[in-house]
C-alpha cells in the first residue's frame, strides 16, 4: 500500500478516535447538568472510545493496519508486526490527526456561549492528568502504573485478536471492547490515555498543567505497549 495512503488512513483514524472519544466527553458526558437523562456519563464515554476504534479499524485497518496510537505502533514493532523505519511517519500522522480533531472539537465547543476551559480542573477538555488533575485525585505513581498495565494488555489483545490463528474478521470488535473496558477502569485515575496522540490532541488547547503532565502520557503508554508487544511475541511465538 502506498505510504501516503497509509499515513492518511492513520491521520483519519486518529482524528476519528479523538473527535469521537474526546468529543463525547466534552459535548455529551454531562449534557444538561447533573442528573439529566441525556448525559452519557462515564459509561457512554467509555463506549464512545471503543466504538471509534471498532469502526475506524473496520474502515481503515486494511489500509494502514489501524494503529491510531503511537503506543500501538511501538507495541506492534516490539511484537514483530511493524517496521521500525515507519514509526516516525506513523507517529507524526497520528499526532497531526489528534491535534486536528482537538481543533475541530474546540471550534464546536466554543459555539456554546458559556464555554470555558478551566485548566486547573481535572479532565478539562478531556485532558489526562495525575495528582490534582486526576479525576479521582490519584498520585503520579498510581497513574503511571495504571497506564503501563492497561496499555500492555491492550497490545496483548490487539496482537492476539489479529494473530493468523485467531478467528478472521472479528479483531476490531475485540479491540474496541478492550478499549471500552480500559476506559471503564481508568477514567477515574487518569481520565484514560493509553494513547499519547489522544492526550496531545486536547492538551495543546488547554495548556498549563495538562501540557506539563503530558510526559507521563507519552512515556507510560509507550512503555506499556513495548511490554505487551514483547510479551505477546514470546507468548504467541510471533516472528518464528
Automatic annotation (TrEMBL):
Site residues by UniProt (Involved in tetramerization or stability of the tetramer): 22
Q: Which CDD domains match?
A: MIP (cd00333)
For membrane topology, the record states:
Multi-pass membrane protein
- Which controlled-vocabulary keywords does the entry list? Cell inner membrane, Cell membrane, Membrane, Repeat, Transmembrane, Transmembrane helix, Transport
Entry's transmembrane regions: 38-60, 87-109, 138-161, 168-189, 215-235
Residue ranges annotated as motif NPA 1: 69-71
Entry's localization field? Cell membrane
Please indicate the residue ranges that the annotation assigns to the motif NPA 2: 195-197
UniProt site positions, description: Selectivity filter:
49, 183, 192, 198
The protein's annotated catalytic reaction(s) are: H2O(in) = H2O(out)
* The keyword tRNA-binding is assigned to this record: no
Which InterPro entries did the record assign?
A: Aquaporin-like, Aquaporin_transptr, Aquaporin_Z, MIP, MIP_CS
Q: Check the record and name the SUPFAM superfamilies matching this protein.
A: Aquaporin-like
Tell me the superkingdom of the source: Bacteria
Q: Name one Pfam family in it.
A: MIP
The residue range of the signal peptide is: none
Q: What does this protein do?
A: Channel that permits osmotically driven movement of water in both directions. It is involved in the osmoregulation and in the maintenance of cell turgor during volume expansion in rapidly growing cells. It mediates rapid entry or exit of water in response to abrupt changes in osmolarity.
Query: Subunit info?
Result: Homotetramer.
The record comments on the domains as follows:
Aquaporins contain two tandem repeats each containing three membrane-spanning domains and a pore-forming loop with the signature motif Asn-Pro-Ala (NPA).
What family does the Swiss-Prot or TrEMBL record give for this protein?
Belongs to the MIP/aquaporin (TC 1.A.8) family.
Q: What is this protein called?
A: Aquaporin Z
Q: Which organism is it from?
A: Lysobacter brunescens
Q: What is the lineage of its organism?
A: Bacteria, Pseudomonadati, Pseudomonadota, Gammaproteobacteria, Lysobacterales
